[in-house]
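Backbone shapes recur. Consider a single case.
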Amino acid sequence: MNKKKFWKIVNKAIVQSGADIDEYLEALEKLLRKLKSDDIVKWQLIFDEYLEVSKVDRLWAAAYLLNDGASDDGFDYFRAWLISLGQDAFLAILEDPDSIGELLQGNIDEDFLAEFEEIMYISSDEYLEKTEQDDEEIFFEACDRFALTADEKAEIHTDIVLPEALEWDEDDDLEIIFPKIVATLK
């Protein structure tokens, strides 16, 4: 498993599900089930690395504005949602968080929430099912055994362009910083 295979699986799930999140989960489950147990673990580790590298303040501010708030967990779920959109969208939004507005233009309603918590746990569930185990600790031990090497992490980081730093708090006028997101919310 490498980043190219990781994104291929994400993109297949997108194609197979359309815009339906439940169908996306089902498609992703089926795709992960086809993998060897070691590759399921590596898929999770690559996912976690993208989750970690995207933990930047400007993106958090965009999530806060888009979702009308973003706790620590909410920001994790937001970044998981971004990853679920595929490599091109993830990288573009990571580089320019305001571009979320272009992506979502006309496609959200008042109940929309840019979060996808379930994708964060899907590989552990599939790993345990494949290995016929029921103790989640076994999955975490496998993650430790198959931890990404420095070279694997460096390869993941090659396409990453982080946005300009932004110090912000809830009282800041984020609408000025993210006009495209604001336009989408109207």
